[in-house]
Amino acid sequence: MVRKLSKYQKNLRNNFLNPISFSLFFLFNVPMVWFSGMKLKHLDTKRAKSKIPFRFFYRWLNKNPFKSVYFAVQCIGAEISTAAIVALAIEGQKPSFAYIVTKMRSQYFKKATGTTTFTCNDGEKIFKAVDKALKTKEGIEIEAKTTGTLDDGTIVSEFHFTWSIKQRKK
User: Fold this and answer.
1) Cα of 115 vs its chain's centroid, Å
2) At residue 119, does pLDDT exceed 90?
3) Is 58's pLDDT higher than 80?
4) CA 23 to CA 6: how far, in whole Å?
5) Cα 34 to Cα 146: distance, rounded to the nearest angstrom
6) Average pLDDT of 2-24?
């Protein structure tokens, strides 16, 4: 099924994919995303990709003592790749939704020694969960998985975020 985006969702997607509006939004709302130099590289109803740079200035800013990307910086990149889809799914709904991470687990496989891309392929699952919340008027929890890879495809980490999503009262 090809899901059509509303005009509100298209606007959000365009703002998140625009490097300037993405940077400004996160500078004022989640400064650590801005400080890390992260960018959202892809966003649609099926997947999202965020990228954490690890070159020049960002190599110093995002590193740990072991010359790799600090685990907390990886967590920021991973969370944004899932949050972007959740934000897209709930954008423009009336009444609006509240959403927050209630659980997170992660596993690290290799040192992230370069630019790391986090890919969440759970868009359909997230959109279906929001559809269910709209229909039932009940809060839901949905787990979204994202995988961090280096430019050569090496998997460095995997994260699972549980999002609590609830429609606000009118």
Assistant:
1) 16
2) yes
3) no
4) 23
5) 20
6) 94
Q: In 3D, which of 160, 65, 88 has the Cα closest to residue 118?
A: 160
pTM: 0.93
Provide the pLDDT for residue 161: 98
Residue where the block lists tokens 């993405």: 22
DSSP for 111-124, written as a single string = ---S-EEEEE--HH
In this prediction, residue 56 carries a pLDDT of 65
Query: Reading across the β-sheet that carries 48-52, which strands appear in turn?
Result: 39-43, 48-52, 116-120, 140-150, 155-167, 97-108
Instruction: State yes or no: pLDDT of 64 exceeds 70.
Output: yes
Count of residues making up the chain: 170
Please name which of 125, 66, 138 lies closest in space to residue 97, comparing C-alpha atoms.
138
Q: CA 107 to CA 99: how far, in whole Å? A: 24
Amino acid at 131: D
Cβ neighbour number for residue 102 with a 10 Å cutoff: 11
Residue 131: CB partners within 8 Å, gap ≥ 6? none
